[in-house]
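Input sequence (525 aa), recorded before submission:
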Amino acid sequence: MKKRISLILKTNLKRNKKSDDLDTVSDGEGDINKSDKADKDDMDDSSTNKDQEETADEDKKKEEDEKIDEEDKEEDSTPKPRALHKTSSIFLRNLAPTVTKSEVEAMCKRYDGFLRSAIADPAPDRRWFRRGWVTFKRDVKIKDICFNLNNIRLRDCELGPIVNRDLTRRVRTVPGLTCDKKVVRNDIKLASKIITNLDAKWGLWKAPEKKDDDDNMMGIASTNPLLANITDYLIEEASAEEEELLGHREGEGEGEGTEEGEMVQRDDELITVVDKMVLYLRVVHSVDFYNHSEYPNEDEMPNRCGILHARGIPPAAKVTNAETDEYIRAFEKKMGGFLVIRGNLTSEEAAKLGLKNEQDEVEKFVSANTQELGKDKWLCPLSGKKFKGPDFVRKHILQKHQEKVDEVKKEVNFFNSYLKDPKRPQLPEHPTNKTSGGPRAGGEAPGGRAGDPYEYRGPPRDVSRGPVYGNRDRGGWDGDRGGRYGGPPPRRDPFSGRGGMRGGDGFGGRPIITYRDWDAPNDEF
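Predicted structure, token format:
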């Protein structure tokens, strides 16, 4: 019995232990489940927060996109500035002198996108034919327009249109020697004079009546703010006393020889001054300073303010004073046309060239249109009416044909303005009218006509041989006779010693005239 009771107690104890273990496990699982639930709750909260943030960001992006769309619509509604430098153009190679600009524009206005036209001055070497440029908008079909213009003739003249290419380089460089301080100072002096002359020509920045003596001495009298205190940059400075005490000559540096030269010296202050003046000349007066040229019809050309020349990179080698002085001298010579004011000719000078009088030309027109048919019968060819006297015809023309009289007056004014213009297109001067310092200038050349431009003035030559160069190796000769180049070699007379036609002496010493070219090789007989 005791054994059974002990076994029952043991089994009960084991059962109690298992139940306790199960209870502890169940409690642990409960804690785990609670922690999992808490983590899930936290994840749900974070996910909801992220969703809310994403929705807020999307709303902001939508609002920004809507604002951008509204701004784009406003920009589309407002007119945008046109790119004036981007155009398409056609070059007309041949324009007859009788073709007017209005006719060219009327021809080109039939095509969409026409902007402007430009016609160059007549060229005397091309029979006074001119060149033209027609500018259109950038988005037109320029090749189709050019093809259509090839089939059009103006006053029986083929225009020869071709498509004009765009400018390859708008800014071009000049030699870097222009960066030198000495050259820049000289450029400031020239540019200030040119600005003063052109401002006075076009009535810009007129100077007051009272002028300062300093400005008058420098030749600069202008109220242009660009030229204010310009004399401060035109005066050179040098330590002459120090050089005299040290025994240096003028222009020599310390330890540098003048023959070897020196590097280009830049002065930024002077360069900023000259840059402003160069831009002013280019934009206001259409003068390209470093190219020493003027573009008078630039506003009508396809590219307005197209080309500009600027200073290049300074040279890496040394430059001597002689090279700098030579460059300055050559540049001043090229800019001479801008430094001197060339006004119109005076009435006396124009009268020598054939200045016309308006009243005289009107009287000539009236007399040319007054025809006598018979006694007391006069005809006006402009209207076909007949009158009893010339006074009635004159009165009729002045009253009924006033437009014809006005045309005559316009022609007279146009001719007089052309005659007084110093830059008018004209034929070059004949070479015989130019005075030369030669010994034969103004007199008759020995053995030839006076002032004959086709007269041979070289060394004496044999008419039957090649050209004379003063050297036997080149076909000439050196003899004791005939001066510097000597006389011709003795001629072999084919009739000498044979009892020729003229007593055995041939042609009496006269050379045989042949029609050989000077450059033909010599044939030895």
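Checked by second reader. Residues 253-257, 436-487, 493-507 have pLDDT under 50 and may be disordered.
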